[in-house]
Each structure stands twice: as C-alpha cells, then as structure tokens.
Amino acid sequence: QPVTVNDGTLTMDKSGANKSVRNTLTLNDLNNFDAPGTARVRYGASAGTDQISGASVVINDQGQLDLSPVSITEGIVNLNLNGGTITTGAATLNITGTTAITGGSITTGSGSVILGGTLTYSAGLATNGPATLYGNLNLGGTSRTFAINDGREHNDLTINAQISNGSVIKSDVAGTLLLTNNGNTFAGGTTLQGGVLALSAPNTLSSGALTVNTANSTLRPEGMNLTGANSIPNTINLGLPTNGIFTLGGRKDVDGAFALELSGSFVLPTPVAVTNQFLSVIDPATEVEISGIVSGGNNNLILGKTGVGTLVLSGNNTFDVRDTVLVGASPVNLGQPEGIRIDGGILRVAHNNALGAGGTSNVNVRGDLGAALELDGSGGNLSIANRHLILFSPDNGVGRGAFNRSSSASVVTGTMRSLAGDNTVTAQIDLRNFGNNGNTVTQIIGVDTGSLDLVGQVIGSRNDGNTTTTSNRNLLTVGGGTLRLSGSQNNTINGTFVVLDGTLELNKSGAIALAGGTLYVGDNEGNDNSDRVVFLQGVDQIQVGTLNIASTGLVDLNNQTEATGGVVNLTVGQSHSADIETGSGTLLLVNNVNVTPLPGLSNSVPATITGNLDLTNAAGAAVIRTYTINDGPSDIDLRIAATVGDFSGGPANLIKAGLGTLALAGDNDYSGSTTVSAGNLRLQHVDALGDTGSTTTTSVSNGAVLELDISGGGTIDFETLNVAGTGRLNGPVSTFGTTPFGTGVIRNLDGDNTWSGNVVLTTGLFNG
C-alpha cells in the first residue's frame, strides 16, 4: 500500500531485506494536509537496505527524507522532489527510473546519488525556487539527460555535487543548468542541446569535450570571470543547424555578468551545403574570448557573430569558410558570397590568423546594424591578408561602429577600429550601402593608437547580385592613431574624406589614395595639429576638389611634391590655426586660398604655410591665384613663410583679397604681378614679391594696404608700385572730426626700407 506522511516523523528501522514501503512513499501530501508542517521520514540506526526498495518517492514542500543514520545502498524507482529535501549521509540512493524536480535539494555526505534515467526540472507553483544537488552524483556509467525547464530564477538546477561516471546531456529545453564543482571526474563529455549551461569553475566539464548541436544554446560563466588561468580548457565541437545560434556569456538577471575565455580547441562543422553558424555575445559590458585554435569548416560554411557584446578571436586559427571573388574581378555574378559575417556588436581580432585560413573570403561588417570589426595588435602587429573587408552602411547614413548608431561624430569608434599595434590589411576594403541602389553612404574607421595600414584597394559598391561598383562614398577617420593608405592600386571612392582625429598618411606607390571630392583635415576640436594629413609619397596621392584645414589641422607634405585640385580653405582659431608644411617638397597650388576665422574669437593666431609653394594650374600655364583673407582678431591672419614660385609654363599672378592680413615672409621667386585688392598685404622679406630680375608690378587698390615689416630693412627692387586710393581709414580723426586719418596705402612697420622701382600714385597716403 502507498504510505503518506503529512506531518511529524516516520522512522523506518526494519532489518535485513524487509521492506517498510512497497508502493509509493509520499511526504507532505499537498492535496490532503490541513496545515503547514514538516513531514519527515528517517532511517533508524539498524535499518536494512530495502526499506523502500522498488518504491517511488514523492517529496513535497517541507518534506524530508533522511538516510544519514545508516551506511547502506537504497534503491528506488522514480523520484519526484517538489520542494523538499533528501539527505543521505554515508548512504547511497540509487534511482533506477526517472527523477523529476520542481524545487528542493539533495545532499549527500560520503555517499552518493546514482541516476538511472533522465532528470527533469520544472518550476512548480508550490515550490520556492530552484533546486540544488550537493555531495556526489554518479551518472551510472552512461549518458544522462538533464531536461531543465525555465523557471523564475536565473539558475534553475544547480549541481554543486561532484559528478562522476558517465556523460552529461543538457536537453533542448530553455532552463539553466549550473555546474559548480571544479573536481568533476566524468569523462564522457557534455552535450548542450539547448537552453543554458552555466559554469562557475574552469574544470566543471571535467576532461571531456563539449558538443553543441542545437540552436538557441548558451554557455555562460557564473559567479566569477572564467579567463586566463581560470579559462575553460575543454574542446568544443560546434554543429548547429543552419542559422543556429550558440550564445557565449551573459545572463538573464540584472546582477551583472562575467567574462568568459575558451582556451581549448574549437572545432567548426564541415557542412555539405551552405550553412550559417552564429556565435552570439549578448552582454555589452563583458567580453568572450576564444583563445584556443578554431579549426574545421569548409567552402560551405559561413561563420557569423551576433549580439551586442564583444567576441575576441586570439588564436592561430586554421578554419576555412566560404570563398569569394573580388569586386570587379571576373566573373562578378557570384553575388559576393560572405564567409564571415558580423551582424551585431564587436568581433575583435587579436592574431594574424584569427579570421582563419583557406581561400580568400569576405568579412561582412554590418555597420548599418551597429556592428564593428576591431583589430588588436597589443600582443603583436597584425596582418590580415586573405579576408576582404566589406563595411556596410545604412543607405544615405553613417556606419559609426558598435553602440554608436545615433551618437555624435566626436564619440564614434568606427565600423573598423584598430585598437593597438601597427596593423595591416592587404585585402580589398569595400564601402557598401546595404540597399540595392546608388545612394551615398558614409563610413568611419577608427585608429586608437599605433597605425592601421590599408594596403588593399579601397572601393565602393552597391548591394546587388553583381555587386556593382560605385564611387560616391565618404570616409571619416577617428582616434589618436594613424590611418595609412598604401599599396599600388588606385582607390576609387571620391566622396568626402574627413580626418576628425589623429593622422591620415598617404603612401600610395604610383597610385591615387584619395580619388576626388573634398578633404577635411580636423574638426576645430582638440590641440594644435592634432588632426594631420601626412604625405609619405608624392605625385597624385590626392585628386580632391577642395582642401579644408581646420584650426586643429596640419597638412604635412613631408618633403614630397603634391598638387591640390581645388580651393584650399584655412581656418583661424583662438590658440591654434590651420597649418601647411612642405619641408623640401612643394605644394602645387592649382586653385585659390581662403582664410576664415572661427566665429566669436577674442584672440587668434595666424594660419601658416611653410616650405615651398608653386602657383600653377593643371596644365602648368600662367595663372592668377587669389588669397581671400577674412579679418580676425590677430594682427596677421595667414603667414606664408614658404618660398612662393611659378610652375613651369608661365608667370603666376597673386591677388590678395578680403579684409584680413596676409604676410609674405619667404624669399619668393614667382614672376607675375601682385594685386592687393582689399585688406593688408604685409611684406616680411625683401624678395617677398618675387625676385626674377625683371620688372613686375604690385598694385594696391582703394581701401587696401601694403605693409613693410622687414627686420633690419632692405631694398625692394625690380617692382613697379601702382597705388590707388587712401588705404584703410581705421585711424584717428582730426580735431574737429572732419578728416579721418588712415594707416596709409603704404605703411612701414619695421626697418629702414627702400623701394627702388617706379611708384605710380593715382591717390594715396604713405604712413611710416
């Protein structure tokens, strides 16, 4: 007959093989008891081994089964634990059938619990939370399935017990199984078929492999960071169905999360048909690192990264993924198949071969979804050779990088980001809009420290079946490091180029680095020359239409010779302004120059050009170049200490426009005329107006001023001076306020100077 204990204590003390219960033993019958109370069944000190042998046991909330007074092996058929407790002490409880748990705990001493069938956890309405196993758990020498349904706690079943003798299968239900014992000895491995497997120590999986073969499976740490010396050393075999997701790290509650490192071998499947396998990191506050070697894969495998967290690949990986062809190669009708896809969060590369081996493949970085690829060369410089990088942007939008889909440009990190080291990408870089159209898109690349060298060709394309190339792409750089454009192939994008932070180095060999559009150097935020463009090679590195240099910007030709294709705009700031340096090289000025102060300045410093400056046009013929200098607080708005000359083909003529002050401080040799149509032109060298050995003309228009500021004085020769007007009327007035006094058309500021050429006065006033 069944035996039910609703309250109090029942002691079973039959000796030998005599049974106390032959059917079902129930502790605290939830259907019949009248008031809460503890129902306890305990073994007597002389109890034999068969007190409940062959029976099933049901232990409800506040029920207690205590075998601890004896050291026996007791066998039961099925166990239902619904919130109560089992204590075995030195005894062994052998469950030959199934174990169903909705809450409660099982604790052994030197004895153990032997599972003979599946263990199922289901959250019960009458229980108060999760279930826990302590002591020793024997799997019976075979595979045991743990079917853990999802309850209200973040860990549904916790096994603190030492697990031995078999293998663990976590079945495809959504709950969480937590393993905590670092001394587990089961050697048959673990299979994760769904739900969550949580680990709180590095060796809880013992020595066997972890096989993950079901979608929506999660492996996460609990209670500590499982990294470094505490990383998970087990081999992991991945074999998800197509589009299946294996989630690494993260947790369901809001108490925080812990970092995870997998240092054992990580083996990818070798599918017979095209298959997507996704690794997901869902917690943005922590990182998951796979430091072991990732192997396997083939030409049918596409490896994906999802989730908003960071996945780090730092091993010398050998895995293969789906091959591709270059955009523009023959044939191009393969739709540009992807090999690696980053659909969310960050994929960080920390080894040359982190992205695998095999044939050339695409890495699709979904910047339109906020995803990013990061290169970390802190452990050694990286060189990415066999992976073409496709950086997606939203149509008519900006690919900003992880967590920056709507943030301002000043805090973005980039869809591709180099964190540290001097890293190189030799494969093609494709800036692609997600839609199948010709919309313009903007992509951001960040370099925090060190350098990132893009040796491969930078192109643009649209997301169609043939991957049609297009050039209307904008590229922005951020971070304090150096982005370098190298290689021998022409980059084809011709949109807007912006150096928001750091340095852009142009190092193409006989090829074009920036193919058109507008180049912005700096954003007027930061220190002097904190935003830089440096030429490592010259001749056609840039074919931009307009060059804009902010107050924080510097263009350094670094002893190279280069031509500007359009207008040069220089910005004057409070404590620093735009600068151009050529060294021994020469800037070929093919268009005009504008200088503009930032609004609201109380003080300013001049913009500068040093080195060598030739006034020319694309064909090398005679030209007129206009410098429009808008007036700022500084005494000088633009100071050209460079040597200004002609390019072969004819004389160059210079016009000074705008109300600001241009200072010519170089030993110039341009051979054309000079016209001061507005504002001030200040001469700080006797040959500032050119020294060609033949007479040229300098004309000063009404309202304009020519200033002589030559330290030590000197003679200006071979120059005819045409003076019109009365200069700038910005001085005091006469006693009665009727006659204003200006500074004069010609004003001598410093030195004993001589003008040896002819002076033609229409009207004018000399001051000095």
Structure, explained:
It is a single chain. The chain is an all-beta fold and 768 residues long. 0% of the residues lie in helices and 44% in strands. The chain has a 32-stranded parallel sheet that branches. It has a 20-stranded parallel sheet that branches. The relative contact order is 0.04. Residues 329-335 and 404-409 have low confidence and may be disordered.
Name its key features.
768 residues, 32-stranded parallel β-sheet
List the helices and strands and how they pair.
Layout: E1 3-5, E2 8-12, E3 24-27, E4 39-43, E5 56-60, E6 63-66, E7 73-76, E8 79-89, E9 92-95, E10 99-108, E11 112-115, E12 119-121, E13 131-134, E14 136-148, E15 157-159, E16 162-170, E17 176-179, E18 190-192, E19 195-199, E20 210-212, E21 217-221, E22 236-238, E23 244-248, E24 260-262, E25 266-268, E26 275-280, E27 287-290, E28 294-296, E29 301-306, E30 310-313, E31 340-342, E32 346-349, E33 361-365, E34 372-376, E35 383-384, E36 387-393, E37 398-399, E38 416-420, E39 422-425, E40 429-433, E41 441-447, E42 451-454, E43 458-462, E44 473-478, E45 482-485, E46 496-499, E47 502-506, E48 518-521, E49 531-535, E50 546-549, E51 553-556, E52 561-564, E53 568-572, E54 579-581, E55 586-589, E56 593-597, E57 607-610, E58 612-615, E59 623-629, E60 638-640, E61 643-646, E62 652-657, E63 661-664, E64 674-676, E65 679-683, E66 696-700, E67 704-709, E68 714-716, E69 719-723, E70 746-750, E71 753-755, E72 759-761, E73 766-767
Parallel strand pairs: 1-3, 2-4, 3-5, 4-6, 5-8, 6-8, 7-9, 8-10, 9-11, 10-12, 10-13, 11-14, 12-14, 13-15, 14-16, 15-17, 16-18, 17-19, 18-20, 19-21, 20-22, 21-23, 22-25, 23-26, 24-27, 25-28, 26-29, 27-30, 29-31, 30-32, 31-33, 32-34, 33-36, 34-38, 35-39, 36-40, 37-41, 38-41, 39-42, 40-43, ...
